[in-house]
Amino acid sequence: MTPNLHLCLIPLLPLAGAAINGLLGKRFSRQTVSAIALGFCGAAFAMAVWVAAQFSALNIPHVETLATWIRAGGFQADFAFYLDQLSLVMLLVVTGVGFLIHIYSVGYMWEEGGFYRFFAYLNLFMFFMLTLVLASNYLLMFIGWEGVGLASYLLIGFWFTKDSAAAAGKKAFIVNRIGDFGFLIALFLMIQHFGSLNFGQVFLNVAQRGVESGTGLLTSIGLLLMVGAAGKSAQLPLYVWLPDAMEGPTPVSALIHAATMVTAGVYMVSRSHAIFERAPLAMMVVAIVGTLTALFAATIGVCQTDIKKVLAYSTISQLGYMFMACGVGAFSMGIFHLMTHAFFKGLLFLAAGSVIHAVGGEQDMRKMGGLRTKIPWTFWTMTAATFAIAGFPPFAGFFSKDAILFQAFTSPYGSWVYWAIGVFTAFLTSFYMFRQWFLTFFGEYRGEEHSNHADDARTGVPAPHKHIHESPTVMLVPLVILAVLSVCGGWVGSVRFDNFLSPALHSGSPVMENAAATREEPGVSEGLLTSISIVAAFGGLGLAWFLYQRRPELPQKIARALNGFYEAVLHKYYVDELYAILFVKPLIDGSTKLLWQGIDRDVIDATLDNSADGAQHVSDAARHMQSGNIRSYAGWVAAGAAAVIAYMVWVGAR
Amino acid sequence: MVPLSYYLVLGGILFACGVTGFLIKRNIITIFMSIELMLNGVNLSFVAFAAEWHALSGQVFVFFVMVVAAAEAAVGLAVIIAVFRTRETLNVDQVNLLKL
Questions:
Q1: Does A623 touch chain B (CB under 8 A)?
Q2: What global pTM score does this model have?
Q3: Nearest chain B Cα to A627, which residue?
Q4: Quick one: average pLDDT of A54-65?
């Protein structure tokens, strides 16, 4: 008998916080609102830690059923929670990083209007995200999946009076719908063929099937799940919403659009590893999409000037790494990178928020510079994160990224092409991150003395701060904790991490086991590959230093020399424009010209209008019969009588 | 013996005269008289048929019509007098207070 852990409390605690703050928060003081939000979120984190402490005593997977939800025929889906190594890691990352970002938000959002609303949304997000990672069937997972999308929409559009923010929220929501469509169809296929959506039953069914050589059911399900993951995790071709999502407040970018929600796709693919391992074609698609996204987003990141946009593209690129890992069968390494990425990317966003806070709402890196001495805490924590993402040993990012690259080269699904692109992307990553680092913290300050506070430009509240200032302690504490995690988070080591996750992530797929048994010694040693990726990281640092420290005039010359290409990259390869021409414009034109003006106005409205007009004309004519003139009435009566008589005569004559 | 059709034609002519008078006259007294003419046209055909088929009901019906016509004349003339007292006209086109 396994102990009852009351897993349901973990998601429900933040929901309670969201409900209290959302319904009553308007009357609370800021202190009360933050106490409620932090209290419930912290309680969820404490619960997660407690669960982790009990973990070794449990039968894994540990399933707790709260209530029956749907029971129709043979199909059943319950409110049930599923705890195994994978969900435990996700649980700790989500609650831990989430809690830190809650703390940070108290400082960052202190002077904003709608303070209670912000925290209600943030807690609501935690609820849905925890539902997503703890769900024991795909349907409940889908509820969480949609819910985080909703929370994301609400928070991107937090400053809803700003048109661009409202539009970005809608864009995120709509692009995600496309992915969700694929996810839903995958669920339908599972119901049809497996009769269940519970993880246990689905994987049991899947395990009885062999590896599909070409296409088949598992390949279809895998590809459709990948469509869903590509939407949520901002992969090609559905990544376009994530850069725009930076319209939201910075803590939101850190929590939802870097650390947790966007990694839901990676979690979902890893959770479904049993399906993917039997569908090599789907695996290959995952790997290719991941690799291309990593490279594609990294090249765009090189030219961005907005401090948050750089990080957004970097997030897309890092998510690409995670999918590359999943695609080559190294699911545990994908999750490992997910974890370290949550630390350092969360930190990068929070530090960027602190920078933006310090310079009064400016997000353009060209107007920063020399902030090293003015905001030392932010500088040092951001440095830790930058080194971590660039892949310098012994920072966290090094271990996970190196493990992914190694797997990409040596795994049975891998190929040297993935590895080569991955290394080049690592070089680009290092380059644009250090470019950001140098532009922001080194050289001379290039902005003017500002008068407005971080987000006051949006709300119009007069700013109390006049000079570049370090952020308050409440914002610095999470920065420091995350910095420590960014440094040490990878020390657990990829092998130990893999061993820990292996019960959850090894389904006994024939391909993987054969590969493990007959694995040839890779042609190159791990040491060589590691050295190459370290060289790539240093190369990026060196190039960034040369271009932005040593010879700051060079980048412009290079940009001019590569005019066409530079323009294309600067405009993000015109992907938004391309989508606008291919999808948005035909859709708008189609709805405007055909559906609205064509069908609705010219057919439906016209039918009604014309019949109403006709009725009016007829009654207009009939109205004249009722003149009020007695003699005309008598005339009508006489005429009617004459008509009746004529008819009778005619009938009689026949 | 005068054939039935003569009576019927005469009744029809009387009725047509009544209708025509009713439609074209403006004086309310004349209209009233036209109504009487129509009633009597009908009465004539009633008695004609009664005589032709030796059926008493036609003659009885005529008495009813005459009684109703007398009652109607009494009420109608009273109304006409009342209208004339207030409006000082007998032209029906000017008695249009209830018209829209």
A1: no
A2: 0.78
A3: B99
A4: 83
